[in-house]
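Good morning C.,

I know you're traveling, so I'll keep this short. The sequence:
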Amino acid sequence: MDALEIARWQFGITTVYHFMMVPLTIGLGLVVAVIQTLWYRTGKPEYLRMTKFWGKLFLINFIMGVATGIVQEFQFGMAWSEYSRFVGDVFGAPLAMEALLAFFVESTFLGLWIFGWKQLKPGVHLACLWVAVIGSVFSAYFIIVANSWMQHPVGVEMLNGRPVMTDAWAVFTNNTALVAVPHTLFGALAVAGAFLLGIAWYHLWRRRHDGIDTIGADGKVIPGEAAGILGRDRNDHTVWIRSLRIGAVVAMISFAGTAVTGDLQGKLMFEQQPMKMAAAEAACHDGTGFSVLSVGNVGSKNCNAIVAVIEVPGILSFLAKGDFTTEVKGVNSLLDEYQSKYGTTVPDNPIYGDRAGQQIQYVPVMEVTYWGFRMMIGFGGVAALAALLALWATRKGTVPASRGLMRLAVFGILAPFGANAAGWIFTEMGRQPFVVAPNPDTSGIDQVFMFTAAAVSPGVSAGEILTSLVVLTSIYAVLLVVEVKLLVKYVRGGVASAMPELVHAPVDENEDGTPRGGPGKPDGDVLAFAY
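The tokens, ready to paste straight into the viewer:
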């Protein structure tokens, strides 16, 4: 492998890993903010318990997301310096606003929320969380603006071979971004919904397994209390059944939202990156039918080696144009267009190094685009269906006693994660061979695009990038183990893991045996809630 291929693997691995934390942080943050608002409005103890339990898991994930996200921007300078030089005038603005504005607000007010439980008035404390959560949404918006410009470059003109921003409003209101933002937010909420559903199911099952909750003659649950354990009382049952139902409703609404916004996003892709969508269908020839299942060598460079086994007429036209009759161009037709517009070989330019003169592969890896597109839809649909079934299964106040169903519910947490990851992999891999895809609305010398082959740092060797790939992947693997262990520990501990005062009085003493904090001051370690 040469430096370009290794650099792409490195960025792909670290980005997908980091993105696993992002939707949970955004989605769970919004859910926790709503739950704390319910506590503030009603004063019901179960909402306080829910806020602290889900808030603790939110914080663990947030911290890991920050740790893994730092690496992303460093890679632009380390492995992708030519790309950074090319897009810097445009890309720098949304990235700077994300770091200096959105993330600064997010982290500052989240810190106030963590340490302000007893120091701030309840309304002010709640406002801190909402500001932090809104900051995370804006953070996502600025990142998506930057990414959407790579998918659909607007608001610039070419000066001395580089795009220079001439219309900031066009960049920040790019139609690609305006559709991608709600699609991403709904995807994040889908992750949060499944997270609540799976963990709440586990705890309701444990209460039945431990004999705390029983079933009455009418089939409805009779919540009980574990003797001597304050954390597993009737309010504990309310915490989990409400969390499960909130999660299920959020998951179903989110799937509907992703479906609607995904349809809009797909129609834009057919206009802006037609080859990506043709590859997602493995559609070699012009037509109207949507391939539900194709066989053959989907990864073959010979597109004609693929045969559609199940095809629904008209659906591809509907996805692309909103009708059932307009033919959509296939890979073979588009390939001729791309070659005539952008050439058949990598330009003879020193920035391409040994890759100059090689044939350009305009057809993305169809194994990735075809199956990634279907995994995105499939995992999302499975999660929504599971949420609907969960609402029906818990209509009498608890979950079935089956251990197998409990495990299925817990593993079901991964489904929307898979849908999010598959969607982003499809989006990014489908853009190849461009790192900045050309805007079909412009032509001639003003056309803005960049081949991925030109984006890699020329002064970095394959061995150096391989070393950083191994090191970063190893570090990320360790962080993954740490995060999973922390999440599992606090999930198993239940509400008591976030509110130890439910089980026993705080034990945090000075060396002389007096309670730490002094008279009139909060007892206990100030970091107890955070960790």
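Safe travels,
E.
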